[in-house]
Design brief:
Helix content is 71%, strand content 0%. With 69 residues, it is mainly alpha-helical.
């Protein structure tokens, strides 16, 4: 995973799962089509990283299904 991809993933998690804003923050637009951020989300490496970080965040906040209910 490149540094920009990692930055995209971290921004995606930090900004409430807004892919376009995360893309702009990480890549600055760089001339890609508006669908490019969503293609990044389908990248297996990025998707796995986001999932792993999401689980870490939920664990640190002690969020589980029982507590949510």
């Amino acid at each position: 995973m490149t540094e920009k991809q990692k930055l995209f993933a971290e921004n995606y998690l930090a900004n409430g799962f807004n892919a376009m804003d995360a893309y702009r923050s990480a890549f600055g637009g760089e001339g890609k089509t508006p669908s490019y951020p969503y293609k990044l989300l389908k990248n297996k490496t990025i998707a796995d990283y986001i999932q792993r970080r999401r689980e870490e965040i939920y664990e640190s906040l002690n969020i589980d299904a029982i507590r949510v209910m």
